[in-house]
Design brief:
By secondary structure, the chain is of the alpha/beta class. The protein has a single domain, classed as TIM Barrel, CATH 3.20.20. The chain contains eight helices and ten strands. The strands form two sheets. The chain has a seven-stranded parallel β-barrel, surrounded by four helices. Strands 7-8 form a two-stranded antiparallel sheet. Strand 1, helix 1 and strand 2 form a beta-alpha-beta unit. The radius of gyration is 17 Å and the shape is globular. The mean pLDDT is 95.
């Protein structure tokens, strides 16, 4: 079985540190890079891409609402034309930086509130999907498993990679436990490792209640913030390899080649 480990990186801002990024880029297979709308800037993109290249990590755009004050986590109701514009602009911003280093953007993963809203709303998911296709229909669409983005992307014939979150708990409906709740995050690396391996082996989401929700799993997202982020990523990588999984960048997985 082939699985991808990815991480949201290059998110330099007053709300987020990138100090873990170089270590994480030695562990993960793909990087979702902030494009300057919720976090990040050109020098950070250049540095993140350069380190990704050294570690054979594939790179993707991580588009969000243009809302650095809230790190892209505030829900905004924008018309479809504005959503299209912000998605296309951010892919092009990262692509322009990447092309100068001989790297190519190979996937797109929405960030924060834009991602959460599109998980729930098919029309928004469709607008994002169509925006990505406008740039390049070969781009892989990295989305949460069971989301409206998975449905929209597949209906439009996109290359869709579905992911689970290593360090987040799930509700019985398959959605993430809200960050406002005490049990939202899994901070113990050992528990996160067991959580991931069980989901991958069963191809099902582990809900906090113990319920299992069958799903497809191509990828695992590890978050880069927090004191245990690097150790969690390392433990998950080692655990998956020991369980017989082959780890690959998204664009090198057989189903997307």
């Amino acid at each position: 079985m082939e699985i991808n480990i990815n991480c949201d990186l290059g998110e330099s801002s007053k709300l987020h540190s990138t100090e873990n990024d170089p270590l994480l880029l030695k562990i993960v297979n793909s990087a979702n890079i902030a494009c300057g709308y919720h976090a990040g800037d050109k020098p950070t993109m250049e540095k993140t891409i350069e380190i990704s290249k050294k570690n054979n990590v594939s790179i993707g755009a991580h588009p969000s609402f243009k809302d650095p004050e809230n790190f892209g986590r505030k829900r905004l109701n924008l018309p479809p034309s504005e959503i299209t514009k912000l998605v296309i602009n951010q892919i092009k911003i990262l692509s322009d930086v990447a092309n100068k280093t001989g790297m190519k953007v190979t996937h797109v993963k929405p960030h924060g509130a834009l991602n959460n809203m599109a998980c729930e709303n098919y029309d928004l998911a469709k607008v994002i999907s169509e925006s990505i296709i406008q740039v390049n229909k070969e781009l892989i669409f990295l989305v949460p498993t069971g989301s409206q983005m998975e449905k929209a992307g597949k209906k439009l014939g996109m290359k869709v990679a579905v992911e689970i979150f290593a360090d987040r708990n799930y509700e019985d409906d398959g959605n993430l436990v809200s960050r406002s709740k005490d049990n939202a995050l899994i901070v113990d690396p050992e528990i996160a490792k067991k959580h991931v391996i069980k989901m991958v082996q069963n191809q099902a989401i582990n809900c906090y209640s113990g319920k299992q929700v069958p799903c497809e799993i191509d990828a695992i997202c590890v978050h880069g913030d927090g004191s245990s982020a690097v150790n969690t990523a390392k433990q998950i990588k080692e655990g998956l390899i020991k369980s017989g999984v082959t780890l690959k960048p998204l664009n090198k997985m057989k189903k997307f080649m």
